[in-house]
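Researcher: Can you fold this with WQD in place?
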Amino acid sequence: MTWLITGGAGYIGAHVVHAMTEAGERVVVYDDLSTGISERVPRDVPVVVGSTLDGDRVARILAEHDVTGVVHLAAKKQVGESVDLPLHYYRENVEGLRVLLEAVTAAGVGAFVFSSSAAVYGMPDVNLVTEETPCVPMSPYGETKLAGEWLVRATGRATGLSTASLRYFNVAGAASPELADLGVSNLVPMVFEQLTEHAPPRIFGDDYPTPDGTCIRDYIHVADLAEAHVAAARALSSSSGSSGSSGSSGSPGRDLTLNIGRGEGVSVREMIDTINAVTGYDTPPTVTSRRPGDPARVVASVDRVARELGWKARRDLHDMITSAWQGWLHHHPEAAHT
Ligand code: WQD
């Protein structure tokens, strides 16, 4: 079976490519390289440069490579940017997915893994977020991920395509320094950047209703997340036949929606303490005002993914931060602390 991995040159996508090839799967990467970097992809994996909005191109690639499954990660993912550019986000994330699904079902591909996000939940008011927790996204980005799930599920029901939507919680770390996240839009790289500039890490608000007053999230190592994709892909391929755009495909495919986290809450202050310990910087944080739209606590229930895929995260917070720091040093050697 050959898997097309869209967005396979991105931070998470490249980790998925490595995990899939290490597990013995044949893969082809499809990426527009708007933020992806082709050097992240192993040399023996073909990289096709293109957009999922180009349906004819996708159709040709599916046929040329005999693709039987797709893992779709190509998307825009900046929450703040999505507020300013909603039409761009809907076009890239929803229209790009719709066009891709059209080609996928026309080609009779059997399995489709969709990269979703905990952003679909918005501001959940529960201790552990289950997949049944109501989805009330707070940003156009989160809306596009929720709409994407609907599109994927509806297509599966109509055509027999086996589908899985994986709701990622807060992703960090790197399997190797070259694969590190180059974006500076999440807590871990933002703290690294402050330390590198000899500035204090910032805590966006310490008056939340949590034990230390700072926000709590569920951080997951990107290598664990990548392994969850392998598990999902295999579960779908063992149950999939092939989809048909006519809606006449006999047997229904699988339809999974799964939280991918560790099920463990860590506060911003605990994260910064661990980062300080790992990096040796030991710079006390400064508290600034709250960032609008931040929920106090978002932690996954991971029972369903354990039950459905037999998957569980193996790496801890220390692994995550140590590997993220190695990756940061690889790209910012000036950050080395002497
Ligand atoms: C984590 C916590 C910040 C930086 C976002 C998206 C989500 C998903 C993952 C894509 C928050 C606090 C941060 C800093 C801080 N993306 N913080 N000081 O907001 O939980 O999730 O990324 O799917 O959809 O919303 O992640 O890493 O930005 O923030 O105090 O310098 O760290 O306020 O509480 P978030 P984050």
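Model: Folded with WQD in place. The first strand starts at residue 2 and ends at 6.
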